[in-house]
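Re: [help] complex structure
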Amino acid sequence: MNGGIREILLAAAIVVLAAFVPLVVNPYWLSIGVTAMMYIALCTSWVIFSGPTHYISLASGAFFGVGGYLVATGMSDYELSFWLMAAVSPFVALVLAGLIGWATLRLSGVYFVIFTLGLAEMIRNLVSWIQNNFLGSRGLYVLTDFTEAHIYWMLLGIAAVVYLLGWWVNRSRIGFALKIIGNDESVAKHVGINTATSKIILFMTTGFFAALVGAVIAPRYSYIEPNQVFSPELSFMVVIMALLGGAGRLWGPIVGVIPFTLVWEWVSIKMPNQTTMLIGLIFLLIVYVLPHGIVGRLEQAFAKMREGRH
Amino acid sequence: MRYSGSVLSVSGVTKRFGGLVAVDNMEFQVSEHEMIGIIGPNGSGKTTMMNMISGAFKPTAGSISMMGSRISDLPAHEIARRGVGRTFQLVKLLPSLTVLENVIAGAVFGHRRRWGRDAEDHAHRMLERVGMDAMSYAPVSTLTYIDQKRVELARVLASEPEVLLLDEWLAGLNPTELETGIELIHALRNEGRTVILVEHVMDAIRSLCDRCVVMSSGKKIAEGTPDSVLSDPEVVRAYLGDDDA
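Output below.
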């Protein structure tokens, strides 16, 4: 328990330090900071569910899109406030995740991965189709008074809440249940775990936060098209960064997101036309070289150091 | 259904997999504190029967009741919560957890629920019971086969089941391990637990079981004390084939 408290104090200190970033860096670095913070929130919430269960979800993009799209359509077409839409959209995603979870979590392994990918793509096309054929405008405007710093702070707040939630889940019965499910689902059932309900609850949590992040970051883009906000690339980026850091620990994604965002920034500037291919290469590299992520490597190194001392 | 004094009753249970009838109209009762053995040649449907009791499979027809209430329609986790605990024919431990956590897993969600300190202490007691407490913090991958079986048993005991299902718990053990294993099950018997065991080790069946149900090709062909069923000509035929074969 003591280790847990220390972990949360350390995390709190990092949050406080991170809050000062917009005050000391120039706009270029702040913009990278916003991107990094967005992925930290997304990856951490992804890891809460996919880390222990090993169910790789490629639906993050869909939930993120629900958040961004609802904020955009609400503000642009119905003149509703940003705050209202940002508050409503996560609950829409929550219901959607519940339905998806109910339909797919009976699947396991690669079937689940493909199903979430297909479903995200379907939602994207469905929303685009409705937008183009029935709602008139093809693009939507999200005009607010927020600066990059405001968005950064909101994302930091979300990331902190997600982290705290993950910390709590790791210590709770439901977190323990997910670990058992990830190890052996038939054992999980026979020790009395309602596997479907446990998985759906945490999958819904992931969807909720992805939509919230999508809603909060929408003002950054000003102009939004359904096709762009429901990007499948985002789902892959979340998985890659989480795996790079290591999905076995809650702080893994943080360790993965920061270097990846920096490298990606450089890649996007130098080789803007080869990004998709490079995502693939990086993914292969992570799987072969860092199967347990940076965290796994660090823990290995620590273990070796301890052995060396004895 | 009326509660007729038996803890578990299996009536008219049939399981079909496509055209194959794995279990055919099985019928038997288990009383409290009774240790019964399900025996029979390979492929006779014993494990399928166990899987239906624990809820891994649903019967195609018939019903299984526990203390008078039907459990055969319930999902496996619900049956576990009602107090049916099982081990698996091929040991199933949770490889990323320690020995202690494996046992805690049995204590948290099942029939009697514990959490935190309480669950941990309880798990230690269960490990002590099977003689594995010294290994509490070891990773599962370092355990020998019998030790893995003991940990799995401790996990099942941790839920304090009303009915314990042991699926070939003694299979695959060497002679010394077998002795330890039989002793352990003997101790369970002396505690007055209600146990159903599927077993091939005849010596164990003779010394452990109050009663045996013999299955062949999915059907019950005999029932009675171990000595009486093992000398039953039909049982001998099921195991060894006809004289002229």
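Chain B touches chain A through 28 residues (CB under 8 Å).
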